[in-house]
Amino acid sequence: MLLRSAAVGLATVTFAATAWGVSMRDGHLAYTPAPDRTPQGYCAYYPYEGSLTFVRIHTASPYDGYGRWGGWSHDYPAADLNMSTILRELTDIRTRELRMGGNVLTFDDPRLMQFPIAYVSEPDEWRVTESEAEGLRAYLLKGGLVMFDDFFDFEMANLIAQMSRVFPELHFIHLDGTESIWDSFYRIDPLTMYLEGPRKYGIPKFQGLFEDNDKSKRLLAIANAGADVGDLWEWAAEGWYPVDPTSVAFRIGVNYFVYGMTH
After folding, report:
1. Helices and strands, counts by H and E, the chain
2. Which candidate, 38, 72, 159, 186, has a CA 20 to 30 Å from the CA of 63?
3. What is the extent of the structural domain holding 249?
4. pTM for the whole structure
5. Contact 135, 109 (CB under 8 A)
């Protein structure tokens, strides 16, 4: 099995070249036990046991409804697994080595309340249902944080439309680097970073949804418009992308999770 090291800050983390439950422990291959299943039957669900679990949201779209592998599943499960590994190795956040990286839930699943941070891939396809809007609103007001990733800047219009059904009173605000999420662990300047990804290159345009539309209050949702951070997480082991943007992508993820765990 090919192993590769990815540098993030001053630390070096080694990823397995596959995300399917194989890792190195004390010089030997180790396999994570098979998880419980979601109602859909093909994604993982690991019951809450006190540590942080990566949660990916299974969203509905006009293309596949709740089909098996829509845009919501892009980079799954390798991105989830690798980001969890980075958090465990570089911070005091305790995560588990999970075969499928983490959980796959819907916004209206009551179990979501047990997990403080949720990740959404390709929200340009998302069509929020009434029950999802209610569940997401309750989740964010209770203290959750949701990150939206892997979509073009011009596709932000759909995310704005869907989130307006969740919070009609709130609107997205462009982030300029003065927000506390950019200092929660690493110091990151969102206006100068360069990211690479499939069809998405350049400096993302980050936007946030804040309590009472006030940037001094808690961030509820963050949108990586024009970026595919998850793809950089996914391919960290294979070296498909240069080290620098891969490192930046993991720093972004670390900051998001640390912020979500402390706000």
Report:
1. 5, 13
2. 38
3. 3-262
4. 0.85
5. yes
